[in-house]
Design a protein that fits this description.
single chain; mainly alpha
Length: 83
């Protein structure tokens, strides 16, 4: 005698793993932008020190360091989302 087939329950389709948006890989542009922010921040700070405060933006003095660290921080925060 054959066993009667069980009707498929909705739980079976829900139990299958689905790819969340969080599990997808990063777009192609993500890594260059991330490293670009970090390098731009580093370059900003180096230019400030080498020019003795005359560049990149004269007149804001220590604000140039804050801008450079701002770019660095954005790049480092992007590393937390890198897959």
């Amino acid at each position: 005698m054959a066993r009667p087939q069980k009707p498929s329950s909705p739980k079976d389709s829900e139990s299958r793993p689905t790819e969340n948006r969080e599990n997808l890989p990063n777009p192609v542009w993500f890594k260059p932008i991330m490293f670009g922010f970090m390098l731009l921040g580093l370059a900003w700070i180096i230019v400030f020190y080498l020019s003795k405060g005359a560049a990149p933006i004269p007149g804001i003095d220590v604000g140039n360091i804050a801008i450079g660290f701002g770019f660095l921080i954005v790049g480092f925060f992007m590393t937390t989302r890198w897959r």
